[in-house]
Structure formats: structure tokens, C-alpha cells
Amino acid sequence: MDVQRYISSGIIENHVIGLVSEAESREMETAIQQHPEVKAAVDAVQQDLEKYVMMLAKKPPVNLKKQILDRLKENTAVEEPLTPIPQPVASVEEIPVTDYTPKVPVSPLRIWQYAAAAAFTLLVASAVMNIAYYTKYNDTQSQYASLQDNQASFASEKDSLSAQLRHAQEELTMMKDPAFKWIKMLGTPKHQGIVATICWDPQSKATYILAQKLPEPPPDMQYQLWAIVNGKCIDAGVFATGEPAKAMQKVKDVTTAQAFAVTLEKKGGSPSPTLDQMFVAGKVAG
Amino acid sequence: MESAFTYTESELIQGLKAKDQKVFSYLYDRYSPALYGVALKVLNDESNASDCLQEVFMKIWRNIDRYDESKGRLFTWMLNITRNTAIDTLRSKAHKMDQKIQDIGDDVHLYTGNLAVHPSVDHLGLSKVLEKLTKEQRIIIDLAYYKGCTQEEISRVLEIPLGTVKTRMRNAIIQLRNLLKLV
């Protein structure tokens, strides 16, 4: 580029005053950067113009400074967001006024790069959050499952406890009820030291047995209760031993009885007692 | 209110960036006449020019971080803010082309030589410089600089061919320079 010719072409004066096209303006910016002579020429014209401007200087109204300083104090208290310095609006046929306002040049490519970077950052953040929340979800899920298990076991425990309580209350009711007769059956001479108790209401005929201390029978055998009336043995049903025997067990209703006896029979019971297998017996009082 | 001491340009910039209100006050005292002169010249109305100047100083305060020393002097930057703000106001007030021309024609201060010159520069005798510019030279500078007119608009106002606007502009500025050298 012929720098001297460029300088004397008039473009510098027109650039400073704002009468060049955008393309010329860009060319000028490049020339200013590349050629110190061009920069010096531009600065010289700029300074001439500024001297001209200074000639037209005029003191602003006296109260204006105070107004501005007051606004500034308000503004400093509540910092307003940065607003870009507006450029004169250039209509289509107009050439924009030269603007020395320092601008941060942001090309569309750069904007896309920023946008892409922002999008990628958001994506990564989202993925991290997803993983974090998924882990949390799994934890919560297993906690929930174990809580459900706990809840279920509490519920069944509660059921069994309330069943036990109901049972205990029934037993207590029987014990309190004067209609019930309690017959303690002691061990026969062959089976000293073993005990079972009958609880019988002659009116309602309800009969219970409490097998306090009976030895565990062989697997194929079972204890059977008999009501004895005038030397005859009447079947009053079989009953369990072990865990259920810790509570009162309901057996068949008994209409009349002078005594009760328990024999060991084959599983399911026998129509008549095996008398040599009698374990306990007791008379009904009065 | 005039500060008794002066700051260098870089001290001024530092102070403004640090939001030092004392520095700002100094800046106002030193530059407000020049900037007010510009606003007044663009808008041709004291009340509008005062509003504009307020806006300009607020922008200087808020946007000082955007000022880039490598791109030009602080005064040039402030001058451009003032010019842009004032021309924006002028356009937003829906001034038509005719109005702009009217404003220039009415500007008796400039064209009668009865100049309202800032005292600090008046003693330099600069007012005489203006008298030596031809009316056309002043108008072409003023239309472009103060009214933000385009080449086409200038061509229409001065009734000169579009192709000669730039040449006339250059000559006007060269004339201005020569006159300034005489001072």
C-alpha cells in the first residue's frame, strides 16, 4: 500500500469525522495497526477536530454537577447492569458515524463457540447430576425396601403379639370365671412328677387343657384326653405338645365327668384308651 | 468546585476504574464544558443538552471498564460517547432532515462570529480561527460531526454532487488545521 497516497486521499479526514463506509472503516483500522504514519495522521486530524470542539465549549448549568453526583451515589448503592454505549442508529442508506468507543469484538463464530461451550458445560453438569441422582435414587430405593421389610416384620410381630395377648386375655377370663372348674391331673405311679390341668365349665361344656409338664411323645404318637363317667372313658380329643402346649388348648366339649385322664395313643387318637399308657389323671372335685 | 491539583490521564483512568468519586468530580470540572458544548451543538437546546450530559457522565462512570487506552485518548472516548448519545437523542426526537438543517441555519453563535467560547480556550484567540473558515466549510464539518449526517444528506443540504462531499470535507479539515497552526 502506498501509505502517503492513502494518507492524502482524504479518507483519513472523512474517517475521523465519520463519513466513510463500513468497509472503508475496516480498511482504516487495519491501516492504523500496520502503519504508524497512518495512525499519526489519524491522531493529528482527531486532535484538530478536538481543538475545534474545545472552541465551542460552554459551561453547563451550575446545578448539573450536583444532580449527576447525586445520581451517581444512588447508582453506586444499587449498581445498575452495564448497558452498552448506544451507537447512532444508521438507516440503510446512511453511513455510520465513526465510533472510537472501545468495543469487545464478538464475531458470530465466537458466539457459537461460547454457545457450544455453554451447552457442553450444561450437558456435563446434567450428566453429573443424573449420575448423582440415580445413585441417590438407588440408595433410597434400597432404604425403602428395607423399611418395607421392617414394616412387614413389625406387622407380623404385632399380629402374633396381639394373638398372644388375646389368648392370654381369654385364659385370664377363664381363670376369673367362677363357672370353670380347675382339675389338676397328677402323674400316675409310672410317670411321677408330670402334671396337666383341665379347665372345664359343666354348664357350657367348654373344656381346655393346659399341658404344663408332659414329656414330648414319639413322632407317631399323640396324647389323648378322656372324660371318665362311671368307669367309662369318653374321648375328649387329642392335643398338641411342645410350643402350643404352653397355652390353654381347647379340646372336645365334655358333658359330664367324674375324672379326667390322659393316655398316649397313636397319632389322631383311639376310640378307646390304652390304659397302660395313662400318664396323668385327676378327679373332679365335689 | 475546581480541583486545585491535576491528574495525569492514566491517574484519571485508574481513579475512574476504581470508582473514585473525587476523580470523577475532577473529570467533570475539567471536561464538562467541552462535552456540554458538543451536546448543545447537536441538540441546539440547553435543557436537552443538560439531560444528555447527565446521561453521558453516567455512561462514563458505568462503562469506564470498557475504555481501552490503546484505542485512543480518554477525551476522544468521552467525546464519542457524547456525540453518539446526543445524536441518538436528536434522532429519537424524530428530528427530520429539514429540522437538522434548520438547526444549523439558526445557529447564530457559530455563523455570526459571536462565539460562546469557553474562557480557558478563548485567550488562545481560537474564536478568530472559526471566523476564517468559510460558511460552507463550517457547515460541512458540523453536519457530519454534530448532526451525524451522511454523505447523501450533506450532498442534498449543500447542493453539491455526492462525489465531491468527501473532497470538500477534506479541504475543510485541512483549512481548519492550517488556521489552528496560526494560533
Automatic annotation (TrEMBL), chain A:
Transmembrane regions: 111-134
GO CC, any one term: plasma membrane
Domain Anti-sigma K factor RskA C-terminal, first and last residues per copy: 116-274
Single biological process term from Gene Ontology: regulation of translation
Superkingdom, natural source: Bacteria
InterPro entries, per database record: Anti-sigma-K/W_factor, RskA_C
Protein name according to UniProt: Anti-sigma K factor RskA C-terminal domain-containing protein
Keyword vocabulary terms for this entry: Membrane, Transmembrane, Transmembrane helix
From TrEMBL, chain B:
GO biological process terms, semicolon-separated: DNA-templated transcription initiation
Keyword Signal: no
Domain RNA polymerase sigma-70 region per the UniProt entry, residue ranges: 27-94
GO molecular function, one term: DNA binding
Family annotation (InterPro entries): RNA_pol_sigma-70-like, RNA_pol_sigma-70_dom, RNA_pol_sigma70_r2, RNA_pol_sigma70_r4_t2, RNA_pol_sigma_r2, RNA_pol_sigma_r3/r4-like, WH-like_DNA-bd_sf
Family that this chain belongs to: Belongs to the sigma-70 factor family. ECF subfamily.
NCBIfam families assigned: sigma70-ECF
PANTHER family: RNA POLYMERASE ECF-TYPE SIGMA FACTO, RNA POLYMERASE SIGMA FACTOR SIGZ
Name of the molecule in the record: RNA polymerase subunit sigma-70
